[in-house]
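Ticket 4471: requesting a sanity check on a complex prediction with alpha-D-galactopyranose. Repro inputs:
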Amino acid sequence: MRGVQREPFGTMPDGELVERFTLTGAGGVRAAVLSYGGVIQSLFAPDRHGAMADVVLGYDTLEQYRGDRSYLGALVGRYANRIRDGRFSLDGHDYTLARNEGTSHLHGGIRGFDKVVWSVEPFEHERGVGLVLGHVSPDGDEGYPGTLIVRVTYTLTDSNALVVEYLATTDAPTPVNLTQHSYFDLRGESGRDILAHEIELAASQFTPVDETLLPTGELRDVRGTPFDFTTPHPIGARIADADEQLRFSGGYDHNFVLDRMDDTSLVLAARVHEPTTGRGVDVFTTEPGIQFYSGNFFDGSFVAKGGRRYPRRSGLALETQHFPDSPNQPSFPSTVLRPGHELRSRTEYHFVVRPS
Ligand code: GLA
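Returned structure tokens:
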């Protein structure tokens, strides 16, 4: 039944309660969201015969989420992806951030937005059901300047779209780059690889990386490379090609530069289609980039939902974002948020079924 259900999920070491909210839209899609990390724990979507399956990776318990290193289903901040050497300068000041991947700062640091308990307010309105999540990141958090006030709204619409809206304000200039880190397996969290999923990306360029997965600053044409997803291709079709970029990251783990007419409109960024079930997800965003990550780091080393282990490439992430390391790349679109301004960003995941 359409609505929002609320239940306890676990307790943090300091006694703080973590809750789970189950959103059920009139279109049939059902999503469970945790106040911890704003995690989307499960998302059930129909296949072409109407059979429902959970299409996102996740865990069963709070303890598992607290130990997570893969950002399964979580909100990521203050800065999605990497900042080189965990360092940047802004307005003549040098800042040092937490370094949590070699010398790099990754996904907001040691205790990023994926590791905190958010405030949550459920709502139901004519367009759908949802949650408003809130978090205040204090001045100096993981090395970042300014108090950052963040609000993320998840709306599950009656036409099976999950809409994620980000709003942030600050009291001092600071870089911000927020994303949602769900991993999809449209066959239904099968614990098998996602290489047969077909993907299309509205991007004629991507940002190549060095061996530490930091962008070089170049925008490179995808044409004639395994990064050309301007027409649909199975993920596995070219993933083993002899290509330096694929070798650096062990598969796809790159920011694609979205083709857009202006800076702010909502554009179709990605389409995913799983041929055996007919399930698909179409991703729309106001962001300039999308990180397509083919789950190359999974190695079956941890226990996830239902006791399953996730082998290499058993989930794919599509992280809408500004480009990695923008604070150190003057030619990339700016990620600096200043007092008196608002960061507003929107991403929509439309769960669809298509004939094969
Ligand atoms: C992003 C990064 C990957 C990896 C995952 C989390 O997609 O680009 O390199 O860090 O997050 O495991």
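Notes from triage: The helical segments are 62-66, 244-249. Leaving this open until the requester confirms.
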